[in-house]
Write a structure and sequence with these properties.
By secondary structure, the chain is an alpha/beta fold. It contains five helices and five strands. It starts with 10 loop residues before the first helix and ends with a helix.
């Protein structure tokens, strides 16, 4: 099975490409037109502010991933996306019946714990029912992560995720790279190290 990004590159190619994207010094100043919005953010690309309540608590220069605003957890609780501001975020997209997702879950949980003080980790569950999602979390030992219920597919669509497992790596200022496929602990840690210095 070929692991792909939206440009269908290999895993090694993804790791190199994500380093280029996330480490690009010019990436913090967007080339988008003034007032344009960066994908996955609630802040205009020119650095202007928005009038949302969440943005009031956002540290200067950081953004809240807009597709996660208004989401609910798999337990039915509301999710405060503003808590993600100020740190990079890794969103792990999974489905409760996905064998590959289940297989990589211990690695995701271990890396999430390793970087818990520096990186936000969010599970984004889709293509299933909430009860199945809760069973998956219980059975895979990934309960330390916050898992969002994306039964509607809205968050997956916002990040252009159409298969699972997948990841979205989001810098604190809203730049992002997605990867479709499994990432082992070493590869996941490698991308997170790049994310931390982006």
């Amino acid at each position: 099975m070929t692991h792909t990004t939206s440009t269908r590159i290999s895993r090694a190619g993804f790791l190199a490409a994500s380093a280029g994207l996330l480490l690009a010094a010019c990436g913090r100043g967007s080339s988008a037109e003034p007032g344009a919005r960066s994908p996955g953010t609630n802040t205009p690309a020119d650095g202007g502010s928005t009038s949302t309540a969440a943005s009031a608590a956002v540290p200067a220069g950081s953004v809240v991933p807009a597709p996660l605003v208004g989401a609910s957890t798999i337990d039915g609780a509301g999710f405060d996306a503003s808590t993600l501001a100020g740190r990079p975020t890794v969103a792990w997209f999974w489905a409760p019946w996905c064998v590959v997702c289940r297989g990589e879950a211990p690695d995701v949980a271990a890396i999430a714990a390793q970087y818990a003080d520096r990186v936000n980790f969010i599970g984004v569950a889709g293509r299933g029912e909430a009860a199945e999602m809760r069973d998956f979390v219980s059975e895979t030992g990934t309960g330390a992560l916050t898992h969002l219920d994306d039964s509607s597919g809205a968050i997956w669509a916002a990040y252009e995720i159409y298969a699972q497992p997948a990841f979205a790596f989001i810098t604190d200022d809203g730049r992002q790279e997605t990867f479709t496929g499994a990432l082992g602990a070493d590869d996941l840690a490698q991308v997170i190290e790049q994310l931390l210095v982006a």
